[in-house]
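Hi P.,

Sorry for the delay on this. The queue was packed all week, but I finally got your sequence through. Input first:
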Amino acid sequence: MKDYASGRLRWLPMPLYFFDVTDDGAVNHSDPLGTDMSKADLAEEAVAMIVSIASDRLPDGMTRVFAVSVRDDQNTVVFRASLSLAASWQ
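Then the structure:
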């Protein structure tokens, strides 16, 4: 990014985002450290995280909901993603 006061280019730090995971509504992991990444990348990261968690924990019952909430450094949720399983005998 250009620093207009000096006319020089300078690097600005990437925003910090916190990924919190729930499994059937119970908080499984609340991210205390955060990850620095661009806002454009956080949706892809959140969805990949759900897929990975689901593949590790399924099958385990007939219904299941996995979710990831992404918070910014002001503790505001900026993105949510969820993955649901609903299975039944016919």
